[in-house]
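Notes taken during the Thursday session

The instructor put the following on the board and asked us to keep it in front of us for the whole hour. The protein is Phosphatidate cytidylyltransferase. We were told not to look anything up and to reason only from what is written here. First, the residues (269 in total):
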Amino acid sequence: MNSETSSSKWADLAPRLLSAIAMASVAGFSIWYGGSFYQALIILVIGLCMWEFIRLLQPAPLWLPVALGFAASGSLVLSVFWSQAAPGILFSPKILVLLIVPVLGAALLAQHRLLCFSYGLLIMLAGLGFIAMGPGPLLIWFILIIVMSDIAGYFAGRLIGGKKFWPRVSPKKTWSGTIAGWIGALALGVIGLSQGMFSPLEVIFIPLIAFAGQMGDIVQSAIKRMVGVKDSSQLIPGHGGVLDRFDAMIGAAGALVVLSAIGSLIFAG
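Then, after some discussion, the predicted structure tokens were revealed:
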């Protein structure tokens, strides 16, 4: 009995490892190769994330999540190639075209319309953020900051514990882990500053990016809890859905686009 229970606990280890290796290989190759391959991968990921998100809110009719997933990919393509408008300018055509799917979703869904618009727009902005960062040093640093925030938060939460951050939505997250995530991200930002990657002002905003990543994780968990599912889909064996793997990245990348746009307006004025 014990051996059966023990083996069942590790039953998903092989698919999890194989899926992780496959995802890391595709991501690594796309970053190394860059260009249209990288853009195509981001466009595909955003389309899948939108499909999963709409499917969580309203699984039937089946065509609706599929159609909006394809529309999300198409909107991001239009945003990338629409014009030569500066990427930091709010209300430019390449930003406004990202509103198409959130608005359509809010109009077509029978419920959760505000959630569909707000989180759907976040997904689209995150796609633009990943495209803007491109397969280069900035993207690597961005990923490292989110990973560092997650690792620091995990260990601080386990070792220090304490008051829960948002117990009704995320019972495992603590304030100690949340703050440790900010500190870890800031420390990595300081290292980037010493390497000439960031300005002092950008380093100050890095904890906000880390916090946005944490909130991306929490919000997606809240959505799944609201609709009563464990994973956003079963696309990735052992890992759940694409949205499950990109929730923190979506929150952080979407916030990065908004902060960049606000900064461009402030400094332009």
